[in-house]
Write a structure and sequence with these properties.
By secondary structure, the chain is mostly helical. It has one domain. Helix content is about 85%, strand content about 0%. It is built from 6 helices and no strands. α1 runs antiparallel to α2, α2 packs antiparallel against α3 and α4 crosses α6.
């Protein structure tokens, strides 16, 4: 809110970069020679692209809470490229029970973006929803059902 022009320009640069990165991830997922990496990379790229576009659409609609949440999700996915490298260095300690190297690599590929997304969804959505349900149950209020 203090520097809206700078924020908007940085957001535009991020959106262009994220869209390029996401499309390249999809391309890499389709063309990579490692079979266990194809689906995770392609799915990762599609989800990253979706979060980035959703953040932009929410900002245009002036829904800045949803915009912020989609940006957090997008940043988490962008950092998956770093996380997969960190996991590579520790995969023997993390997955000693997986003997097959190809299965270990595929597991690392999936977990590099699924685990951080599960953590961020727990923080953004699941815990707040559970806390709200717990508060309304403790206070005796009825929980609205769709």
């Amino acid at each position: 809110m203090r520097w809206p022009r700078w924020h908007r320009r940085a957001g535009q640069a991020y959106l262009i970069s994220a869209m390029a990165g996401a499309l390249l991830a999809v391309h890499l997922g389709v063309t990579i020679r490692y079979e266990g990496s194809r689906i995770p990379l392609a799915l990762f790229g599609v989800v990253w692209l979706g979060f980035s576009i959703a953040a932009w659409l929410c900002a245009r609609q002036r829904d800045f809470i949803a915009h912020e949440r989609f940006m957090i999700r997008g940043y988490v996915l962008a950092m998956a490229f770093v996380w997969v490298r960190v996991m590579y260095d520790f995969q023997h300690e993390m997955f000693p029970f997986i003997r097959n190297v190809d299965v270990r690599d595929a597991t690392r590929e999936w977990l590099s973006f699924v685990a951080p997304l599960l953590i961020v969804e727990t923080w953004l959505s699941w815990w707040p929803a559970l806390n709200k349900a717990r508060r309304s149950t403790v206070s005796g209020e009825k929980v609205a059902r769709p």
